[in-house]
Amino acid sequence: MTVAPIPARLWLLPLVLFVLSAPLWLHTFEPAMFVAINHWCAPVAAPVWTGLSLLGNAWGVLGVTAPLLVLAPRLMWAWLCAAPFAIAFARIGKGLLFSPRPAAEVDNAQMRIVGETLHNVSMPSGHTLTAFAVASAIYFALPQTGRARHLWLFVLASGAGLSRIAVGAHWPGDVAVGLCLGLLAGMLGTRLLARMDAKHLQPTAWSLRLVALLLLAAAYALATEVQDFDENRPLQYLLVPVVLGSLVVFVKQNFVAVRGAAQRNGL
Fold first, then answer.
1. Is position 220 within any domain?
2. In 3-state terms, what secondary structure has residue 249?
3. Range of 91's domain?
4. What is the 3-state secondary structure (H, E, C) of 142-187?
5. Residue 249 domain-assigned (yes or no)
6. pTM of the model as a whole
7. What rounded mean pLDDT belongs to the chain?
8. Is 173:30 a contact under the CB 8 Å cutoff?
9. d(Cα 154, Cα 157) in Å, to the nearest integer?
10. Separation between Cα atoms, residue 50 and residue 53, nearest integer Å
């Protein structure tokens, strides 16, 4: 697939941000910074923060991006290519680091906790990592001309990261590291995307049909399982018809493509 190369200087961005955020992931200002941000976010209704967290949930991301299957499959592939890197970074970090969450070290009466009270495997924030991997993969898969108009993708990802502090699940340092690793995962995903054959963009491609099956699984999960928070149920139910509607259009695209091929072959 034709993907504009990422300028060499931008590959340094995740590392630069990681270094600049060192005071956060070294917990220089904790727990005061966490408590302050958690309190600042408290006036905002919990469903706002839990909804933003859904942007870092795999099933949630599939639901939100389902229309890309028919409108812009290349962008769907972009973040799917970034997903393996994001999963690896999150698993390695959480597997190697002993990192208690805020609820394990801060008096719970001094903080707002939404949902389950978590105590372990804090570093990095997996939701933040996922949100930034998706945002950066889609962003860098866009044509360079006019790409800056889509910087809002990173605003949404930042909201997902902030939500993890707002619900009492992560330290600011966890979010900062998740941001850096997510950016890197997304950028690596676009390199993988560039190596894919363009045939995978066609609705009749077996690979894209597998993605459609994955979306069907996402619709089922969104309809039947709580994704992180009970407050997310209404949003999940709204995403189900989005996914199913996208799949209906995808089936129609397949039907038209198959019928067109048959007519061309004189069948």
1. no
2. helix
3. 8-198
4. CCCCCHHHHCHHHHHHHHHHHHHHHCCCCCHHHHHHHHHHHHHHHH
5. no
6. 0.95
7. 94
8. yes
9. 5
10. 5
